[in-house]
Amino acid sequence: MERIEILKMTEKYTELPQYPAILAQYFIFPSFSKLETDITADVLIVAEGISGITSAYLLAKQGVKATLIEAGEILNRTTGQTTAKITTHHGLIYDQLITDHGEEKASMKPTLKEWSLSKD
């Protein structure tokens, strides 16, 4: 059986950096031992990718006892090597938009996307 890492978000690690930083450099996470006993949690999150970390963080901020389990080491793969931000503008090439449509229309893209996400 693979080693399972446990991160109890309500006990520690509820503060994220104000400015983006590579999480693996910003936080020093301890090693966790293999889960060998029963645990109790309001929410169990399996895997610590950006969605798992974000979910555990937001739940912990609301006082929910969230437990995160991971088969490998915490923040040792893709999420640990990113600036850990979620944005509506990722993958957008503004230079190409400006070239194709001009600065005024290109500057409307983020506003329109955020507006569309706010609709029911």
UniProtKB/TrEMBL annotation:
InterPro entries the UniProt entry points to: FAD-dep_OxRdtase, FAD/NAD-bd_sf
Entries under Pfam families matching the protein: DAO
Domain FAD dependent oxidoreductase: 42-94
Protein name: FAD dependent oxidoreductase domain-containing protein
Originating organism: Peribacillus butanolivorans
